[in-house]
Automatic annotation (TrEMBL):
It comes from uncultured Acidimicrobiales bacterium. Residues 139-153 have a biased composition (Polar residues). Residues 14-78 form the DnaJ homologue subfamily C member 28 conserved domain. It holds the Pfam family DJC28_CD. This is DnaJ homologue subfamily C member 28 conserved domain-containing protein. Residues 135-169 are annotated as: Disordered.
Length: 169
């Protein structure tokens, strides 16, 4: 902790003396960024420059709800082939459609308006099926389809074999 300013000295003289003494002790040697140009000097003036630098340094990003939903829908449609079953495809699409419907009913006060329509589940499931057929995967058996999953013979077969506690993605 530094000493108190003497009563007979001005602030500027007292501060200049402290800086000079620190330089003589070598406290300003080996500082990070020494000799490098300062970032953002050529750019436009921004009052929130420090917030943007902090967000970039911490790796935080924020998208308004409509833009985040649009991005998530795009990623889900592009990654449908990675889902293992028709049931998981339908579940993911229904969950996203529920959030899209909620955002359309309750628009956000800040950010752009929501213009995203719910995804067509049947069309995307058919696309998923055709993608699996072209990849050389075997076609879906009747036990994997949601309508046939509740037949008594399938229920007995499922209860007879223990299920794994984990699933492959």
């Amino acid at each position: 902790m530094t000493a108190r300013k003497p009563a007979n000295r001005s602030y500027s003289d007292w501060i200049e003396d402290q800086i000079r003494e620190a330089q003589e002790r070598g406290e300003f040697d080996d500082l990070p960024g020494k000799g490098k140009p300062l970032k953002g000097l050529d750019g436009p003036q921004d009052d929130l420059w420090w917030v943007k630098q902090w967000l970039a340094r911490e790796g935080v990003s924020y998208l308004p709800v409509p833009l985040a939903l649009r991005l998530e829908a795009e990623k889900l449609v592009d990654g449908l082939d990675r889902l293992s079953s028709e049931q998981s495809v339908r579940k993911a699409l229904d969950e996203l459609n529920g959030r899209i419907r909620h955002a359309n009913r309750m628009p956000a006060i800040d950010g752009p308006p929501t213009t995203l329509m719910p995804l067509d589940v049947e069309q995307l499931v058919e696309r998923w099926r055709s993608g699996r057929a072209t990849m050389g995967n075997e076609p879906l058996s009747t036990a994997e389809t949601p309508d046939a999953a509740n037949t008594p013979s399938d229920v007995d077969a499922r209860t007879a074999t223990p299920r794994r506690w984990w699933r492959r993605r």
